[in-house]
């Protein structure tokens, strides 16, 4: 089995994990809530008034609700591949106008071409196997001069857990995360204009490794790579991993590092396909 296939996300298992975690997600989504807050703050400085907003990987809808408040005149769409997550979004919708919920995969958006003005995605891209296809889909549904803003996790995420498991066996125990530079390259190849990618580093701390693992389980952030070990992990190897993790203890606490990648880009006003430049009719009228 190639390293690429080993790192491939098993979407079916990922969906099941998030379905099971829908009820517990908000209790432990501290980092996801903070990244969403920072993204929304950045959006507040951008002069863009969308008519249609799409939240990709909406989860339980906390960011969806904030987007609805920020863009009160816009139509809000919430998309997630786990139906129970969207059911939580609908419950939260009683506090604001209800979004339209779409249960679908980010790599195959069930939306018409050029139908969205703002595509927002917080901590979801790491569950996509084909970033090329995903960004092509993002660009396809964005209207000319539409805005894409996203966050995802980079390769240094959970590096302590990854290194500690590497001391024990050769199986992947932590899902793969895309590199910031690779993401930027994919955005350019997809045809986005003025892409900006930057990184922030955050850290959560725990009393012990089981505490970290409980939070990851409650989030639905299981290891769902196809090369993962099948079956239960023996107590001996689990204890060996716990011991290996102790080398990172600092001031009585164990760190869990996260490399947060933020991205922003615009859909071009003019699109080129097979050497033909397509100019939106509305922009042509404005120039006459």
TrEMBL record:
<dbReference type="GO" id="GO:0009102">
    <property type="term" value="P:biotin biosynthetic process"/>
</dbReference>
<dbReference type="InterPro" id="IPR013216">
    <property type="entry name" value="Methyltransf_11"/>
</dbReference>
<dbReference type="GO" id="GO:0008757">
    <property type="term" value="F:S-adenosylmethionine-dependent methyltransferase activity"/>
</dbReference>
<comment type="pathway">
    <text>Cofactor biosynthesis; biotin biosynthesis.</text>
</comment>
<dbReference type="InterPro" id="IPR050602">
    <property type="entry name" value="Malonyl-ACP_OMT"/>
</dbReference>
<keyword id="KW-0489">Methyltransferase</keyword>
<comment type="function">
    <text>Converts the free carboxyl group of a malonyl-thioester to its methyl ester by transfer of a methyl group from S-adenosyl-L-methionine (SAM). It allows to synthesize pimeloyl-ACP via the fatty acid synthetic pathway.</text>
</comment>
<dbReference type="Pfam" id="PF08241">
    <property type="entry name" value="Methyltransf_11"/>
</dbReference>
<dbReference type="InterPro" id="IPR011814">
    <property type="entry name" value="BioC"/>
</dbReference>
<keyword id="KW-0808">Transferase</keyword>
<dbReference type="GO" id="GO:0102130">
    <property type="term" value="F:malonyl-CoA methyltransferase activity"/>
</dbReference>
<protein>
    <recommendedName>
        <fullName>Malonyl-[acyl-carrier protein] O-methyltransferase</fullName>
        <ecNumber>2.1.1.197</ecNumber>
    </recommendedName>
</protein>
<comment type="similarity">
    <text>Belongs to the methyltransferase superfamily.</text>
</comment>
<feature type="domain" description="Methyltransferase type 11">
    <location>
        <begin position="54"/>
        <end position="150"/>
    </location>
</feature>
<dbReference type="GO" id="GO:0010340">
    <property type="term" value="F:carboxyl-O-methyltransferase activity"/>
</dbReference>
<keyword id="KW-0949">S-adenosyl-L-methionine</keyword>
<dbReference type="InterPro" id="IPR029063">
    <property type="entry name" value="SAM-dependent_MTases_sf"/>
</dbReference>
<dbReference type="GO" id="GO:0032259">
    <property type="term" value="P:methylation"/>
</dbReference>
<keyword id="KW-0093">Biotin biosynthesis</keyword>
């Amino acid at each position: 089995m190639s390293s690429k296939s080993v790192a491939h996300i098993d979407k079916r298992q990922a969906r099941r994990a998030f379905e099971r975690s829908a009820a517990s997600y908000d209790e432990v989504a501290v980092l996801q809530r903070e990244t969403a807050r920072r993204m929304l703050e950045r959006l507040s400085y951008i002069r863009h008034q969308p008519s249609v907003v799409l939240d990709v990987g909406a989860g339980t809808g906390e960011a969806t609700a904030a987007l609805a408040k920020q863009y009160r005149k816009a139509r809000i769409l919430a998309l997630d591949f786990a139906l129970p997550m969207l059911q939580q979004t609908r419950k939260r919708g009683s506090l604001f106008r209800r979004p339209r919920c779409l249960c679908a995969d980010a790599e195959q958006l069930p939306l018409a071409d050029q139908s969205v003005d703002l595509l927002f995605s917080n901590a979801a891209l790491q569950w996509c196997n084909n970033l090329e296809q995903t960004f092509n889909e993002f660009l396809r549904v964005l209207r000319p001069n539409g805005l894409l803003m996203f966050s995802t996790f980079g390769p240094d995420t959970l590096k302590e857990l990854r290194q500690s498991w590497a001391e024990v066996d050769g199986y992947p125990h932590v899902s793969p995360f895309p590199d910031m530079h690779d993401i930027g390259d994919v955005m350019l190849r997809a045809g986005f204009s003025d892409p900006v990618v930057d990184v922030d580093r955050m850290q959560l701390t725990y009393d012990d490794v089981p505490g970290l693992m409980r939070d990851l389980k409650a989030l639905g952030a299981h290891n769902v790579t196809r090369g993962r070990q099948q079956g239960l992990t023996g107590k001996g190897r689990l204890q060996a991993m716990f011991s290996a993790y102790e080398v990172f203890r600092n001031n009585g606490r164990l760190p869990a590092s996260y490399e947060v990648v933020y991205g922003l880009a615009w859909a071009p006003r003019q699109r080129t396909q097979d050497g033909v430049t397509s100019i939106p009719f509305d922009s042509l009228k404005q120039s006459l």
